[in-house]
């Protein structure tokens, strides 16, 4: 009897009538809001290598030009997931839980910083102390400003010594820094590499502070509730893709230009970052981002870490 059951199950599996391990029974559709950022590379590799398809996932990448556009799509239910940051997820959940962080996307390492505080060529700024009282171009209320303040505080500057000016669009920040109209600005990679190629000087980076400059993958709660098996399959595909990129980054370098992540002018010199293995923000990291938002007057109440972060879907 047991042999007959095994034979039937084997036949069903062979003809795709039941899912293989790690796959979902029916093709699940996922709409992913995609900024042109290096954090997205493992997801594009998962698509390129068929890692989503073999697990029964149909992933549609919806290009967005800026974080506000990404957040509007998520809020309207026209995107199901995105790469964002802890602060963005907290903002979504300020009234009620709506989004869950399910994985790291990118974390700075000693050899691969993510965010850079840059000084304009000819500004005379060479170290953190030189930035006392200097207006630094950031996108206020976002991870850019958060990283700026935390890095400068770690370097010994106090709140009254740190000054920022709001320049939300990164191309504008780049232009103002290059022209010297801004003496300092904060950029993520790969724009930081482009700014350096244009003469900007690195003052600080987050290579020693991954707790500040990390990005995350987050999903709408309603999508998770409707597709729990698909979420596990998605994260398994991302994990496999991450291992592929980290093992042979040169193999996937073309994605950086194809997806307009890295400008062609620096494509040959740009170093692919090392991507993190499975993990989610700690309670301490979440609560620091929360405290910063409250201190800025951008949030009026505490939120529970467990309502915004869930690592239980990650591959074991």
Task: Report what the structure shows.
The chain folds into two domains: 19-107 and 214-308, Periplasmic binding protein-like II (D-Maltodextrin-Binding Protein, domain 2), CATH 3.40.190.10; 115-205, D-Maltodextrin-Binding Protein, domain 2 (3-Layer(aba) Sandwich). Helix 2 (41-48) packs across helix 9. The protein has helices spanning 2-14, 41-48, 67-75, 86-92, 143-154, 170-179, 191-197, 221-226, 228-247, 254-258, 283-295, 305-308, and strands at residues 28-34, 57-63, 81-84, 99-106, 115-119, 135-138, 163-166, 184-188, 201-205, 215-220. The two termini are 33 Å apart. With 316 residues, it is an alpha/beta fold. Residues 1-21 have low confidence and may be disordered.
What would you say about this model in short?
The protein is of the alpha/beta class. Helices cover 36% and strands 17% of the residues. Helix 2 packs across helix 9.
Q: How far do the termini sit from each other?
A: 33 Å
CATH domain fold name of the largest domain: D-Maltodextrin-Binding Protein, domain 2
What is the overall pLDDT average? Answer: 91
Q: Mind telling me which CATH architecture of the largest domain this is?
A: 3-Layer(aba) Sandwich
Structurally, the number of domains stands at: 2
Radius of gyration: 21 Å
Strand content: 15-25%
What is the number of helical segments per DSSP (H or I, 4+ residues)?
12
Helix-strand sequence: HEHEHEHEEEHEHEHEEHHHHH
Number of strands: 10
Could you name the CATH class of the largest domain?
Answer: Alpha Beta
Biggest sheet layout: 5 strands, mixed
Form type = globular
State the share of residues found in helices, binned by percent: 25-40%
Unreliable spans: 1-21
Task: Kindly report the name of the CATH homologous superfamily of the largest domain.
Answer: Periplasmic binding protein-like II
Strand order of the largest sheet: 2-1-3-10-4
Structural class by secondary-structure content: alpha/beta
């Amino acid at each position: 009897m047991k042999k007959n059951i095994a034979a039937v199950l084997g036949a069903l599996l062979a003809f795709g009538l039941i899912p293989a391990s790690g796959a979902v029974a029916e093709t699940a559709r996922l709409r992913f809001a995609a900024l042109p950022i290096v954090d997205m590379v493992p997801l594009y590799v998962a698509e390129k290598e068929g890692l989503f398809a073999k697990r029964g996932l149909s992933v549609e990448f919806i290009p967005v030009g800026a974080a506000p556009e990404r957040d509007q799509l998520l809020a309207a239910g026209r995107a199901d997931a995105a790469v964002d940051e802890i602060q963005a997820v907290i903002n979504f959940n300020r009234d009620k839980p709506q989004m869950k962080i399910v994985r790291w996307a990118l974390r700075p390492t000693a050899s691969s910083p993510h965010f850079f505080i840059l000084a304009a060529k000819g500004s005379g700024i060479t170290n953190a102390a030189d930035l006392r009282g200097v207006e630094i171009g950031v996108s206020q209320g976002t991870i850019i400003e958060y990283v700026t303040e935390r890095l400068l505080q770690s370097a010994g500057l106090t709140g009254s010594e740190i000054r920022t000016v709001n320049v939300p669009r990164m191309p504008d920040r780049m232009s103002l820094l290059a022209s010297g109209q801004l003496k300092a600005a904060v950029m993520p990679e790969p724009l930081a590499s482009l700014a350096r190629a244009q003469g900007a000087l690195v003052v600080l980076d987050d290579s020693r502070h991954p707790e500040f400059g990390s990005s995350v993958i987050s999903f709408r709660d309603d999508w998770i509730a409707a597709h729990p098996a698909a979420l596990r399959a998605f994260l398994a595909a991302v994990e496999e893709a991450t291992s592929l990129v980290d093992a042979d980054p040169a193999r996937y370098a073309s994605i950086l230009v194809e997806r307009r992540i890295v400008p062609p002018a620096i494509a040959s010199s740009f170093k692919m970052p090392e991507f993190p293995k499975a993990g989610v923000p700690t309670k301490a990291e979440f609560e620091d981002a929360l405290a910063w938002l409250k201190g800025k007057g951008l949030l009026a109440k505490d939120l529970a870490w467990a309502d915004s972060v869930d690592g239980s879907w990650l591959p074991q």
